[in-house]
Give the backbone structure.
Amino acid sequence: MSEITNESSNFIEKIIDYDLKHHVYSRNIHTRFPPEPNGFLHIGHAKSICLNYGLAEEYNGIFNLRFDDTNPVKEDDTYIESIIKDVKWLCQNWNGKVFYASNYFEKMYSCALELIEKGLAYVDDLSAEEIKNHRGTLTSPGIESPFRNRTIAENRLLFENMKNGAYEDGAKVLRAKIDMASPNLNMRDPVLYRILRATHHNTNDEWCIYPMYDYAHPIQDAVENITHSICTLEFEDHRPLYEWVLDHLDEFKKEPPKQIEFAKLFLTKTMMGKRYLKQLVDEGFVDGWNDPRMPTISGYRKRGYTPESIRSFCDSIGVSKSQSVVDISMLEHAIREDLKTKAPRTMAVLDPVKLVITNYPEDKVEYLEAEINSENPDMGVKQIPFGREIFIERDDFMENPPNKYFRLFPGNEVRLRHAYFVRCTDFTKDAEGKVTEIRCTYDPETKSGSGFCARKVKGTIHWVSAKHALNAEVRLYDYMMEDEDFDKSNFLEKLNENSKVILKDCKVDDSFSSYNQGDRYQFLRHGYFIIDEESNDGKLVFNRIVQLKSSWK
Ligand code: ATP
Ligand code: MG
């Protein structure tokens, strides 16, 4: 166990170090990630998972994935499955054990009875509206309910009746008896239980009363022996209630878990928040929760991000108490860094035009050597087929180039990457003026890697042998939002309309005649790509993970 506070440790590690040093807990360090199963996880959740899981690993502790499934209305088993899959993907050594808050409904109920017995909770007949109106404001105290001083016996009976279905939904609630004049509104006799007839995904119709989050959460943590209950800043004002609940329950008041808050992650050019993401899905703005443009973990996975890159991103941004927006280029940097030495490099032509080398023998095929990854020589070399006809990018040729255009134009010479110098001699256009074919001559003396070449050229372009080319569909994704920052209320108007471009006629070489879905490559000059799971025998589909450089700023 780590007991030394090092310079680089974050404020949460400092708290844990202190607790360890002072033997605050007689149990292991124990963290949890408690999603509500009401949507897919996003990159903000990834930050929370990495933080909680990372702390458990660092301190030889334990990490729980716990579904906070106390609200039966919005929950769905599809969300549960997706969340488990995402956590598994992100934390590959995780033991896979899953906990459900709903398994503690009985315990929460008996805890409520304990509070009633202690005179610390009462059944209130006021309506939700009345309770709200009696709550007071930040500057004025609340008003005590006329039902606040019911006897313990009466409260017990009424609460049991609530549980047994004697009353209509909303007819009564159980409230904590704390202080209607507390400066903290959360402490003004908060509601602990409500009556709600809804079928729960786990307990079906067993219960018609459901606990409120602020009451249920500390009990869930305590039942699981959590030591450090890490949540986001909006719960800071709820901490006194978290502590109050545990402090008044005999079983939990010794060594209670402690709540620690940190700032949520926000990313530029990215809409976060399950509610909004669900809207994008439900209203068809994206192709589902795992659309590669979505900031969901499943979206990033389909897009081609690696778990390592997301973990390293979460690590690099740190944890803090002050709210800020992280530049999305930090996330892109993390995936580039991860793939830089891992992904084989290859040439692919996304917008092809044919180039014919008129002085190259008609049927000759030559295999040219290329490093698989120039930044990782251990990956070795491969042989690339070359012939008289090749494909190059349409924008690597211009009939009338501007100044400083160093690629192909009539009369100019460029290097074909891994091959020869070619000089443009001629080209043809169709009726609309679109270039249909470019003609060149090559110089056999300029073969790449064959030693000294007296001549220099300024431009190098990539290509694919036409005879060996395979067709591929390439999907280019861009940022979801047009602006760096935006207002949540009108985010639909700010969606980037060009966030998905599908190119159907791309060319890759025949090394892709066999491949594995999920393999990642760098296409020279174009960025990093993954073979999408929609690929099959007749169709090769790539998603662009990220460009080689940020496309904006
Ligand atoms: P959203 O705001 O997207 O609806 P949520 O907070 O309601 O998310 P929960 O399922 O309740 O989602 O959250 C599970 C955990 O993830 C909580 O501990 C929450 O604090 C944390 N979390 C949610 N969003 C972020 C974020 N943007 N950055 C860091 N942690 C987050
Ligand atoms: Mg929530």
Remarks:
- Residues 114-209 form a domain with the Glutamyl-tRNA Synthetase; domain 3 fold (CATH 3.90.800.10).
